[in-house]
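To the team - guanosine-5'-monophosphate complex, inputs and output below.
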Amino acid sequence: MTYVYDDQNIFAKILRGEIPNDTVYEDEHALAFRDIQPQAPVHVLVIPKGPYVTYDHFADTATDAEIIGYTRAIGKVCALMGVEPGTGGQGFRTISNAGEDGVQEVPHLHTHILGGRPLGRMLERAAD
Ligand code: 5GP
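Output:
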């Protein structure tokens, strides 16, 4: 697998503090901030701090500590946002778009956490 990370992407700029963001959580491995165009009452993006383009890139090349840290950060954000079913929340959906068919807009791995309303079915059934 060959990935070239573009360090001028918008999330790299957010990580460097060059562009403001509405942070909801941050630790050594991850930053979570509200999506600028929310599609649900809760719409937070969780990004790893390292230079990874997609989930498969991250899963293949990140350290165990980064993978554990990022995964745990996603869980913490769900709890912070009050959508975690295990603690009384109404549930959520995580989405990580990759590449052209995944319609990935920003080439830095991010996981969308969506919730706060019924989200409907996962995908509209389109003609193949
Ligand atoms: P993708 O389609 O790559 O999975 O989603 C990228 C997301 O990033 C979109 O939901 C878009 O609204 C969000 N986004 C793009 N630019 C910015 C920005 O400058 N700040 C924030 N907070 N979100 C952004």
